[in-house]
Amino acid sequence: MLRKFPYLPLHRLKLLAVAWDLTATTPDLLPPRDVVLRPAESADFPRLLSFMQRPDFQGERVPLLSGIEQRYEEGDVCFIGEYRGEIAYISWMRFDSASLGKFGIEISLVSGEAYVGTAMTLPEFRGRGLATAAETARARWLRDKGIGQTYAWVHPSNFVMLKVMRRTDARPVGHIVQFFMKVSRQTRRILNLAASFHPDDPLASWCSPPRLHFTSGISVYRRGRIEWPGGHGASQSLLSAPQPPGSSRQMRM
């Protein structure tokens, strides 16, 4: 069948766009005992590099210490959770872009906004509230720096991260579905579907036209609702809740 129809979609990518309103009250959650939450400094870079070179690290790898130094020179910051000298949690932040070059997604940020990219908790520290406490500590740190809105992309099957986002009052504001085809042994993006759940919601502007752009493929934008097949548990709890301020349903989850 594939030989007869070589241009059938081979892959579909789904991403959920979420946002935090940092001007709202941030819950005060204590980290696990002996854990310190703070932005990484230059003295932390060697340990941060070791963390990002772990075999189970799923974010963007940095092969050399200079890669971390360059990210800081460009304005990025990594928030860490430190347990007795060991880095147990990281989350990278950017302040100029929420783009995902790998997927051809381009979004520029404006003053007062931040994007949270790669985040990871070491397996031995999961299930102890570290990620949730780190999210709230990071929110307070960002607010003190004058940041009012924070954004992130998350895969709808990442149940662990969805739980953390629900506990920290993340608001689902949109989603993207991309279709890829294999053409001449190359995988190419051919269709981008972008939906904003509530276009009038100020927190949804970052992932909506005219700020959202795709570098290739046909792009279709619409007002949408979540229709993830097989949504259950934490994913369904988070995804079924989005309502803008003033709606008839309760926003906070």
Please name the defining characteristics of this protein.
single chain; 253 residues; alpha+beta; Aminopeptidase; nine-stranded mixed sheet; two-stranded antiparallel sheet; 11 strands; disordered N terminus; disordered C terminus
Q: Topology of this protein?
A:
Blueprint: E1 9-21, E2 35-39, H1 45-52, H2 65-73, E3 77-83, E4 86-94, E5 105-106, E6 113-121, H3 130-144, E7 149-154, H4 159-167, E8 171-183, E9 186-196, E10 213-214, E11 218-223, H5 233-239
Parallel strand pairs: 6-7, 9-11
Antiparallel strand pairs: 1-7, 1-8, 2-3, 3-4, 4-6, 5-10, 8-9
Helix pairs in contact: 4-5
SSE sequence, one letter per element: EEHHEEEEHEHEEEEH
In percent, how helical is the residue content? 10-25%
Name the CATH superfamily classification.
Gcn5-related N-acetyltransferase (GNAT)
| Uncertain ranges | 1-5, 228-253
β-strand percent reads 25-35%
The fold-level CATH name is: Aminopeptidase
CATH architecture group name: 3-Layer(aba) Sandwich
Strand order of the largest sheet: 2-3-4-6-7-1-8-9-11
Summarize the structure.
Helix content is 19%, strand content 33%. It has 253 residues and is of the alpha+beta class. Helix 4 crosses helix 5.
